[in-house]
What does this fold into?
Amino acid sequence: MNEVNISEDRKKYLKKIKRNKIAIFCTRLIIVVVFIVGWELLADAGIIDSFITSKPSEIVKTFMNLSSNDLLLHLQVTCTETIIGFLLGTILGVLIAIILWWSKFLSKVSEPFLVVLNSLPKVALGPVIIIWVGAGMPAIIVMALAISLIVTVLEILNGFINTDSELIKMAKTFNANKFQILTKIVIPANISTFFNSLKVNVGLSLVGVISGEFLVSKAGLGYLIVYGGQVFQLDLVMTGVIILAIVAAIMYQTIVICEKIVMKKMSGRK
Amino acid sequence: MKEVVKLKNITKKYQAKNGEIEALSNISFGVKEGEFVSIIGPSGCGKSTLLSIIAGLEEKTSGEIEIDGGLGYMLQKDSLLEWRTIYNNILFGLEVRKQKNAENEKYVDELLKKYNLYEFKDKYPNQLSGGMRQRAALIRTLAIKPKILLLDEAFSALDYQTRIMVTNDIFNILRKENMTALIVTHDISEAISMSDRIVVLSSRPAVVKNIHTIDFEIPNRTPINCRESPKFSKYFDTIWKELDVHE
It folds into this structure.
């Protein structure tokens, strides 16, 4: 775009867009501030019971005492478990999807099993998992895997199957073999499917890790939250939840940034 | 001139759960070296299937095919890969056939220069117009140095004006490169304007209804200048009547 020759109308239009963006941001900020201040004031005034709701200043205090309540350790444990579960889920999911894309027969055979496994609430497998792999980190990672794997397989496979058939025909006119069709057409055509599934996966891995930690663990944010609940230390519970929200947001944003970089690399402007 | 494509009694039957469908029945004709032949027929008659069979993308049920020379195939959509630059798109065929080498890359550069795409070679497909994309797809096919080109409704995705231009463009390129072309189309005027002969197929199961030789007696004939010839509308009429859906 030529910055010099901007017409008045264009200037107005750009200004309007900018103003709209600022308005949205400010409204969001106001909601958060009102919520936090309201919470604090209502708790101070005794209108809500800070014993069961905790209050922002207490949460901040708990947060500041990071070292005394081992928050960092719990955070580190949860993050490690989530990242391992997430990576395993993604890698295995993509591999299984590739195998099922390759063999129509296997794909047909596995269809009903995948559907049942997908709708089964995986948390129900918790006790079984604990008995099989033992209490501790492995059980939690398996839990995260159980929750995220099937969805990844289904989503990626669906993307693969729906690859533009014209592109595949074009490749065939040059006598491309199946492996070339996979690596040169199907996989690159599904990069956005892949990133969408990563975004879903991050959330699901966290769900798996936290519910795993609820069931069996000696450390982690999930453990912290359950522990806080049991000893009625709501400050600890709330702090745990808020840190969890921040972790989830950071992981999600990391993927969004990676997606942007890859997309930019793959196509001139997109 | 020798025939570079020879079809003998090509028959194609599809097996479906609820029965057998005969798409092509005893199709026989030949294409001579350097000749442009169009296949025309009512929609759904199996013209594209015939081309796919010639290209080896589909199995025939019976019959014989003889092909003398490398085949290139152009589809209705340009099917450029949006994640590759124009240059890398054009190298796709060579890459897949493991023929990417300095000599072939030099040939691609020549083609790009000759057909005015060289300065766009580092752009992505979404930055090019429909006509340019089609030309890029053609160069992608020409890069593997085929002798015979199969065109499957190769221009029908373009709007009318671009289409006339691109048809003209590609006709000239193919003549210049001394290619043989087998063109499938449902557009009568496109078939007349481009071909030396036209094979008319019937509706399903398709048989060869007639083969017309098109001769305008114009030196340096192009798809655009032959449209002005009085013979154009005569050919059009004859073929139109043969394709008549009310028969």
Observations:
- Chain B touches chain A at residues 55, 57, 72-73, 75-77, 79, 81-83, 85, 92-93, 95-97, 123-124, 126-127, 141, 144 (CB under 8 Å).
